[in-house]
């Protein structure tokens, strides 16, 4: 998982406190004095807000709502604040974000719901095992054909003593389940140099 990021927008009193205590919690902290600098970062870096919370004051809240998901914004309306309460609120918000993100991973025409272990379209769904979910995610993230021995090591966590046809059998069954449920035999493609999911 990527490190958790805390972006503080124009709240100098909070920035000083967070800098003093940041060794006691698991956040990468960034401070922005101006909205335009933060907005530029959001527009230029696709994954900038991944696993992030932006802390804003009341006056900056409405302008930021248009730039990102409201779940990623934590608005502080008054001072003083109790830091332990703030950290609890931020942790809860990140847990909600992670759960929500796992519920909706778009892959081609499908939505992969890790929490429910389901691959679905608007009118059909397929229950998957945890290992099948791991296989799909691994292939999706690689964006290139992956050899069976790499899947064996990285997804199944098996050593070289396991025969590669065991992994191939698992993938064959997964491809058959997808074909039977969605009439799709091209979701996981078998190439001469491995398996691939074209996103």
Could you give a quick summary of the protein structure above?
This protein is of the alpha/beta class.
How does the overall form come out from the CA principal axes? elongated
- Terminal-residue CA separation: 21 Å
Low-pLDDT residue spans? none
Helix content: 40-55%
* CATH overall fold name of the largest domain: Rossmann fold
What is the class of the largest domain in the CATH system?
Alpha Beta
Strand order of the largest sheet: 2-1-3-4
Model description:
α6 packs across α7. With 199 residues, this protein is α/β, with parallel strands linked by helices. It folds into 2 domains: 4-103, Response regulator (Rossmann fold, 3-Layer(aba) Sandwich); 105-196, Arc Repressor Mutant, subunit A, CATH 1.10.10.10. The chain has helices at residues 12-21, 35-44, 58-65, 83-103, 130-142, 148-154, 164-182, and strands at 4-9, 27-32, 52-57, 73-76, 105-107, 110-113, 118-120, 125-127, 189-191, 194-196. The radius of gyration is 22 Å and the shape is elongated. The strands form 3 sheets. A 4-stranded parallel beta sheet has the order 2-1-3-4, sandwiched between helices. A 4-stranded antiparallel beta sheet has the order 5-6-7-8. It is 44% helix and 21% strand. It has 7 helices and 10 strands.
């Amino acid at each position: 998982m990527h490190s958790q990021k805390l972006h503080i927008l124009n709240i100098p009193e909070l920035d000083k406190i967070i800098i003093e205590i940041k060794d006691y919690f698991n956040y990468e902290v960034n401070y922005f004095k101006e909205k335009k600098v933060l907005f530029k970062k959001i527009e230029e870096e696709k994954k900038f807000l991944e696993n992030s919370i932006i802390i804003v004051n009341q006056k900056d809240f409405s302008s930021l709502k248009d730039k990102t998901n409201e779940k990623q914004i934590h608005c502080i309306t008054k001072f003083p604040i109790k830091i332990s309460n703030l950290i609890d609120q931020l942790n809860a918000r990140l847990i909600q974000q992670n759960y929500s993100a796992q519920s909706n991973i778009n892959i081609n025409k499908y939505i992969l719901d890790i929490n429910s272990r389901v691959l679905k379209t608007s009118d059909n769904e397929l229950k998957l095992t945890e290992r099948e979910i791991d296989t799909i995610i691994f292939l999706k993230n690689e964006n290139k054909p992956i050899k069976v021995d790499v899947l064996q090591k990285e997804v199944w966590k098996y050593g070289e003593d396991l025969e590669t046809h065991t992994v191939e059998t698992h993938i064959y069954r997964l491809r058959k389940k997808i074909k039977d449920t969605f009439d799709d035999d091209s979701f996981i493609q078998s190439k001469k140099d491995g398996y691939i999911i074209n996103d």
